[in-house]
């Protein structure tokens, strides 16, 4: 057996595998004998079937199977041993012809696409802006109001003073004021929150409402005819709710108002932990610090966009084996259509080129992800998920248990490996290029980001 390759140009090559009968016949015979030890063939005891009969009955299929296995192993071993950096997967040469029925000796030929040789060097010669978003007073005010609401308490009041109040009461379907619909819908108890109404006119009907008041409004208009919301508000099934367009009279029985927390030590402890801050000045300074930290991912994401552009510019333009890759995409994705392949491929090229550049960055900085990296990332992800439900300060052993559960899933583990690798790439880039630090307001940052998009 002989395996060799020949470059047709800088981006394409052909791998040839020459196989003779002597390369596979012994394996064919061995496989047939093994099959004969297990096969149940009428008229013969197990293991006593004549080899000639096995050859006649199964020789062709076993021969094809062994040849295919030998070719596949030889092909991928050759690519590995010769360190060929290929794109996609090898494809049978379009002009190759073999007849497995009549030939004993074969020459298999495979087209392969070679990754372009890139000169990628991430260093201080590459300059990238890094935008830090300034924390203004409005941000601090909004964050404080959020915490005041989160740590406030629900109290029953006689009169609504906020559209976010929860209005509880009974409802009756009406023909007009004072006239209920005969046999209409009656709701003994329900709760509405005008803050979530999608119709301002209906929302206004609850402004300043008091206990005992009767309010005529249209539930369908209030939720923009959302069947799910109507069904929930009226305590009926969705099928019935789909036909409701009537006005209803609501008799208010209770009003629940969120009373914001007071700006005191109890709030400080709830937000930042016991005695971390002790004065309003320290509290608001800590708020600024917290907001600034929360904005770092925004700055980092913008940096990743700008860094990519700067590195791509430094690398310069390079070609890909377009014809092969289009052919490979059509062969491996049956949903792709030949008439659209040029357009589809053009959209893929930028990300494919960036992926090739990133592979070189990984080599430059010897980036790798180990189990400790994965566990640390999984714990951060778990902590973030808990935080979404307002659960902060989760014990480390709990986070580790959830992290290990994530890593036990092959799909989650693969996703986390990609995420950890990407984070290490961005860190390596950030530490190696020349950063041009700039401060911008959130408004200017968002406008700049829109331009980048």
| Count of discrete alpha- or pi-helical segments spanning 4 or more residues | 15
Mean pLDDT: 92
- Rg, alpha carbons: 35 Å
Q: Low-confidence stretches at least 5 residues in length (pLDDT < 50)?
A: none
Tell me the number of strands: 12
Distance between the termini: 54 Å
Tell me roughly what share of residues is in helical segments: 40-55%
Major sheet details = 6 strands, antiparallel
The portion of residues forming beta strands comes to 15-25%
Could you say which structural class the secondary elements and strand pairing correspond to? alpha+beta
Order of helices and strands: EEHHEEEHEEEEHEHHHEHHHHHHHEH
Shape assignment: extended
Explain what this protein looks like in three dimensions.
It is a single chain. Helices cover 50% and strands 19% of the residues. The protein has helices spanning 21-38, 51-81, 137-150, 200-204, 219-222, 227-234, 238-241, 265-272, 280-315, 322-332, 341-364, 371-388, 396-408, 410-432, 442-452; strands at 2-7, 12-19, 86-92, 106-114, 127-133, 153-157, 166-176, 179-180, 186-192, 214-217, 247-259, 434-440. The chain has 15 helices and twelve strands. The strands form three sheets. Strands 6, 7, 8, 9, 10 and 11 form a six-stranded antiparallel β-sheet that branches. A four-stranded antiparallel β-sheet has the order 1-2-4-3, sandwiched between helices. A hairpin with a 4-residue loop joins strand 1 (2-7) and strand 2 (12-19). The protein starts with a strand and ends with a helix. It has 453 residues and is α+β, with helices and mostly antiparallel strands.
């Amino acid at each position: 057996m002989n395996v060799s390759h020949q470059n047709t140009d800088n981006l394409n090559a052909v791998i040839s595998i020459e196989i003779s009968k002597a390369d596979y016949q012994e394996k064919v015979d061995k496989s047939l004998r093994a099959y004969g030890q297990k096969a149940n063939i009428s008229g013969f005891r197990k293991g006593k079937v004549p080899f000639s009969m096995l050859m006649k009955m199964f020789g062709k299929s076993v021969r094809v199977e062994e040849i295919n296995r030998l070719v596949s192993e030889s092909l991928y071993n050759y690519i590995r041993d010769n360190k060929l950096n290929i794109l996609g997967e090898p494809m049978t040469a379009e002009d190759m012809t073999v007849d497995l029925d009549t030939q004993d000796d074969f020459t298999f030929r495979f087209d392969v696409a070679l990754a372009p040789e890139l000169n990628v060097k991430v260093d201080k010669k590459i300059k990238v802006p890094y935008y830090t978003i300034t924390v203004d007073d409005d941000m601090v005010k909004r964050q404080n109001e959020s915490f005041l609401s989160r740590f406030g308490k629900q109290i029953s009041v006689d009169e609504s003073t906020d559209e976010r109040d929860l209005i509880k009461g009974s409802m009756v379907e009406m023909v007009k004021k004072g006239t209920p619909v005969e046999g209409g819908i009656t709701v003994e108890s329900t709760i509405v929150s005008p803050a979530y109404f999608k119709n301002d006119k209906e929302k206004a009907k609850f402004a300043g409402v008091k206990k005992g008041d009767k309010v005529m409004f249209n539930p369908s208009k209030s939720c923009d005819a959302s069947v799910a919301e109507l069904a929930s508000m009226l305590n009926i099934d969705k099928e019935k709710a789909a036909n409701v367009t009537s006005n209803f009279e609501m008799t208010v029985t209770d009003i629940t108002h969120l009373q914001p927390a007071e700006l005191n030590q109890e709030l400080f402890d709830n937000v930042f932990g016991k005695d971390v801050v002790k004065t309003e000045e320290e509290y608001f300074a800590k708020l600024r610090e917290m907001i600034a930290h929360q904005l770092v991912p925004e700055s980092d994401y913008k940096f990743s966009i700008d860094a990519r552009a700067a590195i791509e510019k430094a690398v310069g333009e390079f070609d890909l084996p377009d014809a092969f890759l289009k052919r490979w995409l059509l062969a491996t994705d049956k949903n792709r259509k030949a008439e659209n392949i040029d357009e589809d491929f053009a959209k893929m090229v930028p990300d494919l080129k960036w992926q090739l550049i990133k592979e070189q960055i990984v080599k430059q900085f010897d980036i790798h992800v180990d189990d400790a990296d994965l566990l640390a990332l999984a714990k951060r992800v778990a902590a973030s998920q808990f935080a979404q439900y307002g659960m902060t300060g989760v014990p480390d052993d709990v986070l580790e248990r959830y992290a290990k559960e994530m890593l036990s899933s092959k799909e989650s583990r693969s996703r986390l490996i990609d995420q950890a690798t990407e984070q290490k790439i961005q860190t390596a880039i950030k530490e190696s290029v020349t950063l041009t630090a700039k401060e911008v307001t959130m408004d200017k940052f968002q406008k700049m980001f829109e331009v980048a998009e």
